Amino acid sequence: MQQPANYQRAEAEQAGVGGEAGTRERAGGLRDFEPEIEERPQGNVSCPNPPEEDKLYEELDEFIDGLADQDGVLIRVLHFAQNLFGYLPRQVQIHIAKRLGKSLAEVYGVVSFYHYFSTEPKAKHTVEVCMGTACYVKGASGIINELEKELGISPGQITKDQKFGLTVSRCIGACGLAPVMVVGDLIKGRLEPEMVEDILKQYKGQG
Ligand code: FES
Fold first, then answer.
1. Do 175 and 136 meet the contact criterion of CB atoms below 8 Å apart?
2. Which of 42, 146, 191, 202 could be stapled to 196 by a disulfide with Cβ–Cβ 3.0 to 4.6 Å?
């Protein structure tokens, strides 16, 4: 059975093939591999941590405290943290590792294994344009051009305010509505480039 790409990558790293982990494995064995854990910056008088961020860490700590002595809580904690922070930056992973008494390598291993977890900021609204055959033939390129113009980004990027992300995908199984795009959970079909501005307006006002 074909393994997921990230699973294959994890296997490759464990085998010492490629990647930073692989390099260290060759030097000293994976068991010895332990990325340095840095303390979360506490800020100082001239450059304090943003209060909102401290509040998020407090909330995360409360959640972790509520799980005390339960087994297998790492995924639940990561899930909670991603909902809280929007993604799982390195500092959050370090914090979780320390709080759960785990290695950063273990936490990172889980984060990188599951597609659901992200180490990069995510856009509030992801706009996904289908570039499958039916949509392509019916003008999906024109839809992408219009989105690029409206949002000022290319596929694979997110806007500076992190409100919109633009991606392209293969057939999403709604060929009868081609060309289609998906915004959040909603499919928008039979699109014309002129419709793009109005559709985005509905989301620009949110949050
Ligand atoms: S090709 Fe776009 S939905 Fe099938």
1. no
2. 146
On whether the CB atoms of residues 177 and 134 are closer than 8 A, the answer is no
Residue with tokens 């991603």: 82
> Which residues contact ligand 1 via a Cβ below 6 A?
130, 132-135, 171-175, 178, 180
Ligand 1: distance of its center to the CA of 189 in Å? 10
Model's pTM, two decimal places?
0.54
Domains in the chain with CATH codes: 5-41+49-113 (no CATH), 125-204 (3.40.30.10)
Ligand 1 atom closest to Cα of 130? Answer: 2
Q: Could you tell me the strand order of the sheet in which 164-169 lies?
A: 164-169, 125-130, 181-183, 186-188
Pair 81, 116: CB distance under 8 Å? no
- Placement of tokens 């480039």 in the chain: 193
Instruction: Report pLDDT digits (tens) over 27-77.
Output: 333 344 444 555 555 544 444 555 567 889 999 999 999 986 676 899 999
